[in-house]
Design goal:
It contains 15 helices and 15 strands. The protein is of the alpha/beta class.
Length: 410
């Protein structure tokens, strides 16, 4: 019997960007090959080092094209009803995020539209958005609830998120964002709504297997650190990881709070201070940068990139795809924005949409290319990794592979 390796798929003559470099580089192999078996990477190395007699059911010649891990969008609000293009016009006329929210727009507008939509309608509207991300090289998506703000509507959103993953054959991770905004029926009872979320909604949805992580919006127009602490304590009791929208519009010290609970990530972070950076560094909490919202809101205060870099806080990049403040359908464009607006290097941005994004979701089986990892990969019509951040718009994807196979929708 031959000892030669047998693969389901063998990719040859690829310029591999493994991102499996402890020094933070690209981890490039100029003329590489990858053998996949049972949805995992079984062999990776130089093409001329392939063992003699290697057999594969399918061979894909990359012809020198770039091969990277599948991209990971670790912060989206992809499922929602309605659109909010009118708010875009209002902001251009000078209205602030807070002005729109206090006037009944913003999240409240999306809540009304989402509550009015049935599950099939939500799925039908979300599917093209998910496909846009897939066509841009995304193989894992995080999707939050938070536009229902009652048990039935939040359940409907999370069920749609699960359906999207099943339909497209990609990985979808869900985050319960019950503390996103205050629904009108609790307008005079904020603490009562917090109790509803902590004592009724989260336990029910977790018991149904719909929740992978718990999120909240810590802000002076949303929920206080004390209220979010109640939620995080309940999440801990249910053995669910936590993450947080933190320091987007003001410094509420939310990053330190989520780090205290060993949180997966703190997201936005424009007003993050040095103490918050230090807390995140100690806890290993990922900083998720959301340049789409920064751009759409025409903000001027950037996250403290230098401090995060100096303290060794891993920096992920995500679209924050949502109907109001980041209607962004391209993770690769978010990476470009992270470079041009926030000052990341292309290597940092690419790691931010792969390896660090995986960490922000608590996933250790993807985001890098090495033996044993999931065979989530993208073959690009590009020859250098910086091109993925350099080109603004357009479609660079040649082939998307999830667990070593082409998936529905690409």
């Amino acid at each position: 019997m031959s000892d030669a390796p047998r693969f389901d798929l063998l990719l040859t003559h690829a310029r591999i960007v493994s991102l499996d470099d402890p020094e933070g580089g690209y981890g490039e192999i100029a003329d590489g090959a990858i053998g996949c078996r049972d949805g995992r990477i079984a062999w990776l190395g130089r093409h001329d080092a392939l063992p003699a007699g290697t057999h594969a059911e399918r061979v894909l010649d990359a012809h020198g094209r770039l091969l990277t891990p599948g991209l990971i969008d670790c912060h989206t609000h992809l499922v929602f009803g309605g659109v909010r293009a009118d708010e875009f016009e209002m902001r251009l006329e000078g209205a602030s995020y807070q002005d729109i929210a206090r006037a009944g727009g913003g999240i409240a507008s999306s809540v009304a539209a989402t509550r009015a939509a049935d599950e099939d309608s939500l799925f039908a509207s979300a599917l093209p958005r998910a496909r846009s991300l897939l066509h841009d090289g995304v193989t894992t998506i995080e999707i939050k609830s938070g536009y229902g703000l009652d048990l039935d509507s939040e359940r409907r959103m999370l069920r749609v998120a699960r359906r999207l993953g099943e339909h497209l054959g990609i990985s979808v991770r869900t985050s319960f964002l019950g503390l996103h905004a205050l629904p009108t029926e609790f307008a005079d009872d904020r603490d009562g709504y917090v109790s509803e979320v902590c004592e009724r909604m989260l336990p029910a949805l977790a018991a149904e297997g719909l929740v992978d992580a718990v999120d909240a919006f810590c802000e002076n127009i949303a929920f206080s650190p004390a209220q979010i602490r109640r939620l995080f304590e309940q999440a801990r009791a249910l053995q669910l990881p936590v993450k947080l929208h933190a320091e987007q519009l003001s410094n509420q010290h939310g990053a330190a709070l989520v780090a205290e609970f060993d949180g997966l990530s703190a997201d936005h972070l424009e007003y993050l201070d040095e103490a918050g950076v230090a807390s995140m560094a100690r806890a290993g909490t990922v900083a998720v940068l959301l340049p789409g919202a920064f751009y759409a809101l025409r903000e001027t205060r950037r996250p403290p990139i230098v401090a995060l870099r100096d303290k060794g806080v891993p920096m992920a990049v995500a679209t924050d795809l949502n109907p109001g403040t980041s209607p962004l359908l391209s993770l690769r464009l978010a990476a470009n924005m992270a470079c041009t607006l926030f000052g990341l290097t292309p290597a940092e941005a690419l790691r931010g949409v792969t390896a660090h994004a995986a960490r922000a979701l608590g996933l250790d089986d993807r985001g890098r290319l090495r033996a044993g990892m999931r065979a989530d990969m993208v073959l690009w019509n590009a020859h250098t990794p910086a091109e993925l951040c350099y080109w603004v718009g357009g479609n660079l994807v040649e082939q998307v592979l999830v667990a070593g196979a082409t998936r529905n929708g690409y």
